[in-house]
Amino acid sequence: MKAFVSSFLLYTVLLCIHLWRPVTASSMQNETDRLALIAFKDGITQDPLGMLSSWNDSLHFCRWSGVYCSRRHVHRVTKLNLFSYGLVGSLSPHIGNPTFLRTIVLQNNSFHGKVPSEIGGLFRLQVLVLSNNSFEAKVPTNLTYCSELRVLNLIDNKLEGKIPEELAPSQN
Ligand SMILES: *[C@@H]1O[C@H](CO)[C@@H](O)[C@H](O)[C@H]1NC(C)=O
Ligand SMILES: *[C@@H]1O[C@H](CO)[C@@H](O)[C@H](O)[C@H]1NC(C)=O
Ligand SMILES: *[C@@H]1O[C@H](CO)[C@@H](O)[C@H](O)[C@H]1NC(C)=O
Ligand SMILES: *[C@@H]1O[C@H](CO)[C@@H](O)[C@H](O)[C@H]1NC(C)=O
Ligand SMILES: *[C@@H]1O[C@H](CO)[C@@H](O)[C@H](O)[C@H]1NC(C)=O
Fold first, then answer.
1. Would the CB of 53 count as within 6 Å of ligand 2?
2. In this predicted model, which residue has the larger pLDDT, 110 or 22?
3. Residue with the nearest Cα to atom 2 of ligand 2?
4. pLDDT tens for each residue of 1-10
5. Superfamily per CATH, domain 30-167
6. Nearest residue to 104 via CA among 85, 140, 77
7. 9: Cβ–Cβ under 8 A, 6 or more apart, which residues?
8. Looking at residue 170, what is its pLDDT?
9. Is 108 near ligand 4, meaning CB less than 6 Å away?
10. Which residues form the signal peptide (predicted)?
11. 1 CA from centroid of ligand 2 (Å)
């Protein structure tokens, strides 16, 4: 009887682990995206047009202005489109966490500080437009990990040095 009870318990525990793991994993992933967006917002010190006022708990983050989510992978952020909003602040390194991101457009704002090298974690990233901001320092070599990157616009910033060679189109 004891053996039966304990193997039943073990079976139940295993079943629970089996049933719960996928759910936990997927909610942790979209929690990652939510936390990354909150960190992004925390990096912003001025939002003169109130663009980020919709970034609050009463709306799902997929409905926050400028945030677009995947239709196939529910609750995963694929696009961040916040151009010409007069945003002032720095770009949070957590921007490298929502790994479904394909497009980041922050053109014509006043972002300063570094372009975070954590962007290298966005292996699906195709479009990165940071033009007309005040980004400083070097372009991180880590962008070369974004192997899908097709559009990179960094014009009109305060960047130093060269674009990493690996990112330049081949010259042959
Ligand atoms: C996370 O995903 C689960 C399952 O898909 C969903 O029920 C939940 O609402 C999601 N949470 C957020 C914050 O998107
Ligand atoms: C959250 O954002 C929505 C949409 O912009 C807005 O209607 C609502 O008042 C906001 N809630 C809070 C608590 O700021
Ligand atoms: C740049 O953004 C400002 C708002 O901060 C806006 O007034 C201006 O028209 C924008 N310029 C372009 C070319 O989009
Ligand atoms: C660049 O930013 C300045 C200052 O916000 C703005 O006046 C100008 O229209 C912007 N240019 C472009 C091409 O976005
Ligand atoms: C650079 O990118 C790699 C690969 O995506 C990532 O694992 C690493 O954390 C990034 N390094 C930094 C300093 O962000």
1. yes
2. 110
3. 54
4. 455 445 544 4
5. Ribonuclease Inhibitor (3.80.10.10)
6. 77
7. none
8. 54
9. yes
10. 1-25
11. 58
Q: What is the 3-state secondary structure (H, E, C) of 108-142?
A: CCEEEEECCHHHHHCCCCCEEECCCCEEEEECCHH
Instruction: Please list every protein residue whose CB sits less than 6 Å from any atom of ligand 1.
Output: 26-27, 30, 34, 74-75
Note the pLDDT tens digit of each residue in 11-66.
444 444 444 444 445 555 678 999 999 999 999 999 999 999 999 999 999 999 99
| Calpha distance 104→96 (Å, rounded) | 11
- For residue 125, name the pLDDT band (cuts at 50, 70, 90): very high
Q: Which ligand is nearest to the CA of 57?
A: 2
CA dihedral 117, 120, 124, 129 (to 10 degrees): 30
142 lines ligand 5 (CB under 6 A): yes
| Among protein residues, the one whose CA lies closest to atom 8 of ligand 1 | 27
Of 75, 77, 100, the one to substitute when testing ligand 1's pocket (max ligand atoms within 8 A of C-beta) is 75
Per-residue model confidence (pLDDT) at position 146: 93
Ligand approaching nearest to the C-alpha of 27: 1
- How high is the pLDDT of residue 23? 46
